[in-house]
Amino acid sequence: MSQSLLPTRFLFRFSAVCKYHDPLWTAKGAGLDETYRLVSLAEMEGRTTWADVRAAWSEAGLAVAVRVEGKKQPPWGDPSLPEQSDGLHLWIDTRDIHNVHRASRFCHRFAFLAPDVKSRLAAEARSRAGGRRSGSQAAGSKDASQAMFLPINRAREQPRPVPEGSLQVRCQTFDSGYALESLIPAEALTGFDPAEHPRLGFTYSVLDRELGEQTFGVGSPMPYREDPSLWATLELAR
């Protein structure tokens, strides 16, 4: 039998439970245990899963955490090149509409990039060699990563501006990968109203220059980055 031209995940509409967590974010991050893990749908197509992704919600917003294992190279992130950086990309539709192909003002895209560990360590080594104290944050600190809102290509409307400094991210690196936690507060999500709209259109993409791409719904070459009809659903449950 010949291989299907369409990915298996394209043939289904998926919904996953997103559990309540309060407080959603503290000075130590989200702290989501394994009960908040999202099922890996990539395995339906025989793809290797190398990122553990977890999500939680509260009236304060949405928290998503990822742990990447199996890397042999240090992570790299550059805010000027988000599509080429290692990190977590999220697409969220606060109205969970699946019958349109262009994003509305309720659709959002966020990127949370891993730190550029190699360059940071090199800068710190040069600083120590010169007898100066480095001004860079430690590789595992919350300031070592970058968080940003990205416009969705071909969107009919854009959501309201994301308040500056509202997105939160923490990242800890280790020999075989990194663990990244992100917070998208309610004020950064146009139309976020869990009481009236407890379902979110949702997909993620964990991008890694070494390991590739891991997505929740369909992945490349399907145009999931700009087409909300290709996203899955998160059910906000207590």
CATH topology group: Immunoglobulin-like
What Rg is obtained from the alpha carbons, in whole angstroms? 18 Å
What average pLDDT do the residues reach? 86
**How many helices?**
1
Helix/strand/pairing category: mainly beta
* CATH class type: Mainly Beta
Largest sheet: 11 strands, mixed
Using brief descriptors, characterize the structure shown.
single chain; 11-stranded mixed beta sheet; 11 strands; 32% strand; globular; Immunoglobulin-like; 5% helix; 238 residues; mainly beta
Account of the protein in words:
This protein has 238 residues and is mainly beta. The protein has a single domain (24-237), classed as Immunoglobulin-like. 5% of the residues lie in helices and 32% in strands. It has one helix spanning 117-129; strands spanning 15-20, 51-58, 61-68, 87-93, 107-113, 146-149, 168-174, 177-185, 199-208, 212-215, 232-237. Strands 1, 2, 3, 4, 5, 6, 7, 8, 9, 10 and 11 form an eleven-stranded mixed sheet that branches. A hairpin with a 2-residue loop joins strand 7 (168-174) and strand 8. The protein is globular. The N and C termini lie far apart (44 Å). The model is unreliable at 132-144 (pLDDT under 50).
